[in-house]
Specification:
Number of strands: 42
Largest sheet: 9 strands, mixed
Shape: globular
Distance between the termini: 52 Å
Mean pLDDT: 95
Helix content: 10-25%
Low-confidence stretches: 1-33
Radius of gyration: 28 Å
Strand content: 25-35%
Oligomer: single chain
Number of helices: 16
Structural class: alpha+beta
Length: 909
């Protein structure tokens, strides 16, 4: 991600402190004091949410997890020490009184670029006991633009689909290697090779004036006194969704530090050699993503090109663009996100009567197909086809409607002997067919699945009394992960672009299901940049980065402030909040300028075109379910406008801007009042909006009413009536907007369960009943040819966690959480939710009038626990942390307790 300016950090750090409230009363405090155990050493040390970062930009942000065996424990202070790799102390924070354990800023002297450091931390608990020091953790600083001292190079070519191989040989010095790093950037994709092995992959789907680089540790991959070969295979293929056109280019800097104090540096320059990669010219797969069909020619492959001793005398010298920054390549920032790769085998391989092999991977995956040809014959061409569904004869369907209007063909021209086809670029597919006569066995077929890197040990779990709920949850969790690549995608097959609305939905799911932070932070930062690049009037690009330039959708822009707040609530990352705040206020100004002085409503919110003009509402168009698009002041747009003001007000409060917050709240209140005055029928139901002549629409859509509830517009006195109207319409909103529907139904958990499990009507249950393994773009995707791999339908995972398992984050950084199991809909549920400060565990069950719930609360977290009960007298609390529970009152059929860390079990009758 981009390094957010240090001045933003100063604002945030000075204005915002996260403190876990002490449990009032003294039973909990007394119990902890009596126990008197010192905290254990902190664990899970991170810098910017990474355990071993190699390219830290700006002031590091430290994180850790405090540990304590005593119940009800919090962190009251910390101390951080940073040392250079040689052991010299660089910074000692001293004892800092704070409960913060995430995004704690380094405030010492400037760190040296491209240098290794170690750090350690210790913490104090509520009784003043101090922990042992943590095990040291390491991080490296990144390169500034002026530090590269390397040339951008490329092969001279006019090819629209440019595959280039580049190489450089060098001799490694004889002194022991103590540290070696490769820094690399390439446009658009690359595979980095060292001595015959692929050691890294990366993209640069960014604008060339503001790109990314990656850093790879190669210390253990080089041998003293031996020759070495550095190779890069890069791929530039013009503009597409999520991919600015840029220009072909490669930049590399390898540094090797030896024990005798010498340093070797190998950089891209005119001494490198380049040649055309062994791909044939092929057509585009579609007109959206802009990918090309991969036609690999193994007869043209320079075998051994990435190993020392290869004869590259026939290769050409590169075109040297210039020393970085040069030409269009003006600035680079260390990329924080990573991909995870795993090899999978088909669940089933079928040989058709024709002799073709069809591999079924069991589910739709974002992957690169891999096929081994054991006995290749030079010049034999093998056609292969990926796809989403099978045709009636068992072959892979080539229908455009079945495959998102995308040509999923692959080709491989064999050379003699044993060889392996490996696709360079991922696509989404489930089935893979290889034509007859290719000499392939079932065991020769595999695929490499890729997705954004997450910690698998922290994957959210859920199991309930309803298998349909469980299946829908698993579908959403898997879809969110597979739709998260170097960017949040709309689909891994067609556009493959980071649309703002799609990113918001998928990000909420990945943060909730995997504790993901880095990809969300990168995406937020990129959309921040989109406003600066394209929209001085406060809008944001609908897709960013993107190959077709300036383009917006009004309600996507309105979604941004709420997304930033949700990220901050989950993470506690004040630096990003501070950086986003000016963009949020610009969005608020954009909305405010469109408020009609007569009606008080947001009217004709500028932006979009065609079916998106003044707001997309829902998408695809069939998912609008008759919504009246012939309206000038739309209820959905106005409800989102209320959220823009409220989310920005919350950010202002968090950053200490109380005057801003008060003004923004007045804006929200005034707009909500106007909606309630102008956009309701006499029975309190919301209509879709006002026509240009000021008359009301006669249509009252589910989305207009769901959004009025979800975004707090509906008055409390009328809320139940509106929710009943929403519930009575079943499912008349698309996967894209389903989070708004589920939020509106939050107090009707039986209806939430119905929407998740209905196998006949629209919804996740129907996707599963029809064999779907990935959430769809629309509930009618098979009938309309829409995407069958659209992760935006994963967003309702958040609502399953909050409404059915019962876990919600209520304070930034998860300093406080709420556990509130539903009163109906399910008989039992158990699971974990990864929050910033640890994993919250819940296991509850009801049997008749009896209810039992066990809750696990991480150290440094306070939980508000709601126990279904008629009266407090009917509740009993047991378990190691029972002494931390303090009853605070009865509320809406629950006995409410405030509890500290540890495990507690609540019993009620």
């Amino acid at each position: 991600m981009r390094a957010i300016p240090h001045r933003s950090l100063a604002v945030a750090a000075g204005a915002l402190t996260l403190v876990t409230a002490a449990l009032p009363g003294s039973t909990a405090a007394a119990a902890v004091k009596a126990a008197g155990h010192a905290p254990k050493a902190p664990v899970e040390l991170t810098v910017g949410d990474r355990t071993r970062p190699l390219n830290v930009e700006g002031a590091p942000l430290f994180g850790w997890r405090p540990r304590d065996v005593d119940p009800g424990e919090t962190q009251t202070a910390y101390q951080i020490v940073v040392r250079a790799d040689g052991g010299a102390r660089v910074w000692d924070s001293g004892k800092v009184a704070s409960a913060s354990q995430e995004y704690v800023p380094y405030t010492g002297p400037a760190l040296t670029p491209d240098t290794g450091y170690t750090w350690t931390v210790r913490t104090w608990d509520r009784t003043g006991e101090v922990s042992p020091w943590s095990r040291p953790a390491q991080f490296d600083t990144g390169l500034r633009d002026q530090d590269w001292q390397a040339d951008w190079i490329r092969r001279t070519t006019a090819e629209a689909d440019d595959y280039t191989l580049a190489r450089k040989e060098f001799a490694v010095g004889s002194s022991r290697i103590v540290r070696a790093r490769v820094h690399i950037s390439a446009s658009h994709q690359y595979a980095l090779h060292l001595n015959g092995e692929v050691i890294d992959h990366g993209p640069a789907y960014e604008y060339p004036d503001s790109g990314y680089y990656r850093t790879v540790d190669v210390t253990s991959r080089l041998q003293e006194g031996r020759p070495a070969a550095l190779g890069v295979q890069y791929h530039w293929y013009g503009a597409g969704q999520g991919r600015p056109k840029s220009e072909p280019g490669l930049l590399v800097r390898l540094e090797v530090e030896h024990a005798d104090g010498t340093r070797q540096v190998v950089v891209t320059d005119g001494s490198w050699k380049v040649t055309r990669g062994p791909w044939k010219t092929a057509p585009r797969r579609n007109g959206d993503g802009g990918d090309y069909v991969e036609e690999y020619d193994a007869t043209a492959e320079p075998v051994g090109w990435d190993r020392p001793g290869f004869d590259d005398s026939s290769w050409q010298a590169p075109q040297v663009v210039g020393a970085h920054p040069a030409g269009p390549f003006q600035s680079l920032t260390g990329q924080e996100t990573d991909l995870s790769y795993s090899v999978i085998r088909p669940r089933k391989v079928t040989r058709l009567a024709s002799g073709a092999l069809v591999a079924d991977f069991g589910e739709i995956v974002p992957a690169m197909p891999v096929v081994r040809f054991r006995n290749g014959e030079a010049g034999r061409h093998v056609a292969m086809h990926a796809g989403y569904v099978l045709a009636s004869d068992g072959s892979v369907s080539r229908s455009k409607d079945d495959n998102q209007s995308t040509d999923l063909t692959y080709g491989h021209t064999q050379r003699d002997g044993d060889q392996t086809f490996r696709s360079f670029t991922y696509m989404g597919f489930r089935y893979f067919e290889i034509e007859p006569g290719a000499g392939v066995r079932p065991e020769d077929i595999s695929a490499v699945v890729q997705h954004t890197e997450v910690d698998p040990s922290r994957t959210a779990r859920l199991r309930t009394s309803d298998k349909g709920v469980d299946a829908a949850y698993d579908l959403m969790r898997r879809s969110a992960l597979f739709g998260s690549q170097w960017q949040f995608l709309d689909t891994p097959t067609r556009e493959k672009g980071q649309f703002l609305g799609d990113a918001v939905d998928t990000s909420l799911a990945t943060m909730s299901a995997y504790g993901e932070r880095r990809l969300t932070r990168q995406a937020i930062t990129e959309f921040i940049e989109s406003q600066a690049r394209y929209w001085p009037d406060g809008r944001l690009n609908a897709v960013y980065p993107n190959g077709d330039g300036k383009r917006d959708i009004p309600d996507y822009t309105e979604m941004f402030p709420g997304w930033v707040w949700e990220y901050y609530l989950r993470s506690g990352d004040a630096r990003t909040l501070a950086a986003a705040y000016p963009v949020m206020t610009a969005v608020a100004d954009y909305v405010r300028r469109h408020i009609d002085s007569g009606t008080g409503l947001v009217t004709r919110l500028s932006g979009g075109s065609g079916q998106y003009q003044y707001g997309i509402i829902d998408w695809p168009a069939t998912m609008r379910y008759g919504h009246d698009m012939d309206t000038a002041a739309r209820t959905v747009i106005n409800a989102l406008g209320v959220d823009v003001f409220n989310a920005t007000a919350r950010a202002a409060d968090a950053l200490g801007k109380s005057a801003d917050a008060a003004a923004l709240r007045r804006d929200a209140q005034n707009l909500a009042a106007a909606v309630n005055a102008e956009l309701r029928r006499p029975d309190g139901v919301y209509i879709d909006g006002l026509k240009s002549d000021g008359t009301q629409s006669t249509h009252a859509s589910q989305i207009a009413n769901a959004y009025a509830v979800a975004y707090g517009v509906a008055p409390a006195a009328d809320r139940d009536r509106v929710v009943s109207y929403v519930a009575g319409l079943g499912m008349q909103m698309g996967p894209f907007t389903s989070h708004g529907l589920m939020k509106a139904l939050a107090d009707r958990p039986d209806k939430v369960v119905e929407r998740l499990t209905d196998t006949e009507g629209p919804g996740w249950g129907n996707i599963l009943a029809r064999g779907g393994t990935f959430t769809w773009e629309s509930w009618d995707a098979p009938e309309t040819g829409q995407s069958r791999s659209h992760p935006w339908g994963s967003v309702a995972l958040v609502d399953v966690q909050e409404s059915l398992l019962g876990v919600s984050v209520t304070a930034p950084g998860s300093a406080r959480v709420r556990v509130r199991p539903p009163l109906s809909g399910l008989d039992r549920a158990s699971g974990t939710v990864p929050v910033q400060r640890g994993d919250v565990g819940v296991d509850w069950a009801r049997s008749g009038a009896a209810f039992q719930m066990t809750v696990d609360v991480p150290v440094n977290v306070t939980a508000e626990v709601h126990v279904p009960a008629r009266a407090a007298a009917g509740v009993r609390v047991t378990g190691p942390a029972a002494s931390t529970a303090r009853f605070t009152g009865m509320r809406d059929g629950y006995a409410v307790y405030q509890v500290g860390s540890g495990r507690l079990t609540f019993h009620s009758r």
